[in-house]
Design a protein that fits this description.
The chain has 79 residues and is an alpha+beta fold. The chain has a single domain, classed as Glutaredoxin. The chain contains 4 helices and 4 strands. The strands form 2 sheets. Strands 1-2 form a two-stranded parallel sheet. Strands 3-4 form a two-stranded antiparallel ribbon. The chain is globular, with a radius of gyration of 12 Å. The two termini are 17 Å apart. Pfam families: Glutaredoxin. Keywords: Cytoplasm, Disulfide bond, Electron transport, Redox-active center, Transport.
Length: 79
C-alpha cells in the first residue's frame, strides 16, 4: 500500500486490513517522494492510499470498502 502518515484515508485503509488480519507493506510517500511517480505509473492515480494485492490494483480506501461490502476483498486477500 502506498500511503502517507498524515492521510486519514490511509489510516482507515490500514485499519481495515488490520481488522481482516492481512499482512501488508506500507510504502511511505512522505519518506520517499519519488514513489509518487511509481504510484501514477502503476495505478494511473495521484492520490493515496493506493493498494495492491499482489499485482491486482485495488485502488483507494473507498474502493477497498466497496470490495469488502461485495465480499470480494476477503477473496482477494486469501488468494
Amino acid at each position: 500500500m502506498y500511503a502517507s502518515a498524515w492521510c486519514p484515508y490511509c489510516r482507515a485503509a490500514r485499519a481495515l486490513l488490520d481488522r481482516k488480519g492481512a499482512s501488508y507493506t506500507v510504502l511511505d510517500v512522505d519518506a520517499q517522494p519519488d514513489l509518487w511517480d511509481e504510484i501514477l505509473r502503476r495505478s494511473g492515480r495521484d492520490t493515496v492510499p493506493q493498494t495492491f494485492i499482489g499485482e491486482h490494483h485495488v485502488g483507494g480506501y473507498d474502493d477497498m470498502v466497496a470490495l469488502d461490502r461485495r465480499g470480494e476483498l476477503d477473496r482477494l486477500l486469501s488468494g
